[in-house]
Amino acid sequence: MVLESLFNPFHVKKQPWQMFIAGFFYALIALILSYVVFKEVAGLLMVFLVVMSTMPILYTTIKNEEELDLKYTKELKLLKEHSKVLIFLMFLFLGITAALLLAYLFFPQNIVDATFSLQQQAIVNVNDNVRATVTGDITRFGLFGSIFSNNLKVLFFCLVFSLLYGSGAMFILTWNASVIAAAMGNVVKTNVADAATSFGLSTIAAYFGATAFSFFRYMTHGIFEIAAYFIAGLAGGIISIALIKHNLKEDRVLIDALDLILISIGVLFFAGIIEVYITPVLFA
Fold first, then answer.
1. Smallest Cα–Cα separation from 81: which of 259, 224, 269?
2. Radius of gyration, CA atoms only, the chain
3. Residue 249 burial (CB < 10 Å; 0-12/13-18/19+)?
4. Which of 36, 172, 174, 217 suits a disulfide with 283, CB 3.0-4.6 Å?
5. Closest-CA residue to 173 (of 241, 96, 270)
6. Count of C-beta atoms within a 10 Å radius of residue 124
7. 1: exposed, middle or buried (C-beta count within 10 Å: 0-12, 13-18, 19+)?
8. CA distance linking residue 184 with residue 180, whole number of Å
9. Where are the alpha helices (DSSP H) in 1-108?
10. Which domain holds residue 264?
11. If DSSP codes are grouped into helix, strand and coil, which group holds residue 96?
C-alpha cells in the first residue's frame, strides 16, 4: 500500500505532471521486481505490477468522475472536468513509457531480453500483419480502414475491461506502453548502430537524436490513439461504478458515458488519418 499512497488523486488532477513521476517510478520498480522474482514471465508480470500500483488512484478518480455526473447538469462542464483526468492519465502513460524506454536502452542486455521478450514477439507479429495487409495493390484508404478497424478492437476491449474491472483498461494501456517502449528502443539502437558504422562513433548526441526521432515517429499519431483508449476506458469505468452504486438509472450518467465513447471514436479516427497520411510523410 506504499506506492499507491504517494499520490493523491484529487491533488494530481490539479498538477497532472506528478503522474509522469508516478508512472516512471511505478514502471521502473515493477520491471526490477518482475525480473528478480519471476524472470521467465518478467514481461507480463511487470505489466501486472504497474497496473496493481495504479489501480487505487484510478479507481478513486473514476469514482469521483461518476459522482460529478450527478453533480453537474451541463455536459460541457462535465466534459471539461473529464479532460483534466485525461491529461493526468496521459502523463501517467508517458511516465511508464519513458521509464521502460530508458530501461530498454541502458539496462544490461540479459535483463532487457528477459523482460521484453513478449513485447519483442508482439512487435514481430504486428509487423507480419502489416506486411500481409499491404501486399498487393492497396490504397491509402484501404490501409486506413485496416488500421482503424484494428484500433477500434483495442478501444472496444478498453471499454469492456473498464466496464468489468472498473479501471481494467489500464492493463491494455500498460501493455501498449511496454510494446511502444520496446519498438522505440529498437529504432534508437538501430539508428545509433548505423551512426557508429557510418561515422565510427556512438555519442550522446546520436542517442538523443535517435530517441527524439523514435519518440515523434510513434507518438505523432500514438498520442491520439492512447487518448482515445483512455477516454473509452473512462466511459467504461463510469458505467461500472454507476452499476455498483445503482446510479445507472440516472440519464446523465448514460449520456455522459455515451458522449465519451463517441468522442473516443472520433479521436481514434483522427489518429488513423495522422498515422496513414501524415506520419509516413514526416518520417519516411
1. 259
2. 20
3. exposed
4. 217
5. 96
6. 10
7. exposed
8. 6
9. 9-12, 18-37, 42-71, 75-106
10. 3-282
11. helix
DSSP summary character for residue 194: H
Q: Are 180 and 220 in contact (CB under 8 A)?
A: no
Sign of CA dihedral 260, 266, 268, 274: negative
Give which of 204, 183, 207, 179 is closest to 47, Cα–Cα: 179
**How many domains are there within the chain?**
1
Amino acid of residue 25:
F
Nearest to 105 by CA among 214, 226, 225: 214
Query: What pLDDT, on a 0 to 100 scale, did the predictor assign at position 198?
Result: 56
Q: Which residues contact 255 (CB under 8 A, 6 or more apart)?
A: 75
Q: pLDDT band at 10, cuts 50/70/90?
A: low
Residue count of the chain: 284
Q: How far is CA 228 from CA 145, 223, 253, in A?
A: 17, 9, 19
What pLDDT, in 10s, does the model give residues 123-165?
877 666 655 555 544 567 777 888 898 899 999 998 988 888 8
Grid coordinates given for 224: 491520439
